[in-house]
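Tutorial handout. Part one gives the primary structure; part two gives the three-dimensional structure as tokens.
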Amino acid sequence: MSTFINAYSPTNLRFLLEGLLVTVEVSIISIVLSYIIGLILGTIRYMKIKYVSAIVGVIIDIIRNLPLLLIIFFTYFGFPELGIHASPFWAAISALVIFESAMLAEIVRGGIQAVPDGQMEGARSNGMTYLQAMRYVIMPQAMHMMMPALLSQFVSLVKDTSLATIIILPELLYHAQIIYSQNTTYMIPMYLIIAAMYFVVCFALSLFAQRLRKKLGKEA
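Part two.
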């Protein structure tokens, strides 16, 4: 018991919270950017724009079949070779956005395709342009159907931030490793508390997504 009490000292807890803050910051920025980019890419794939959709599809398939860890290494070690110098914070965000955008693009495309064709035909017959029909008729229904998959991917993104510890990003897991490297008896207490912290963040994200889904369902 004394091991847990010492491991959870105010100093250590404060240090862990600093790492959690970095994890949350990386997660929020990555979720927002990857969602925007994924929405655009998924819509382009669905619209089947000549040549463009095919090229985007090839790029998405390549990225989706690469390990995220490899992309993290590329953004941190490869970008400087291209003249792009990024801190571990922005290298991690870049890698997560690249990977998650590709994953989300397929979710978006699948969600749009799940909307019955008659919805588009009905919107067009009422005088809407193609883009208006997509904006006001198709996308609201697609968003409602794809929300569970989006939530799952966002939760995965939060957990994937732990991979950035390999490039010395001072996130939650990295801070925990620093603590138990000074006293190996703290290893189990540290893993237990970071598991609890990840659960709280992911559960909060789940609750937010459920409320958003209900709101979208009322508007649809």
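Part three, for discussion. The radius of gyration is 21 Å. Residues 10-47 form the longest helix (38 residues).
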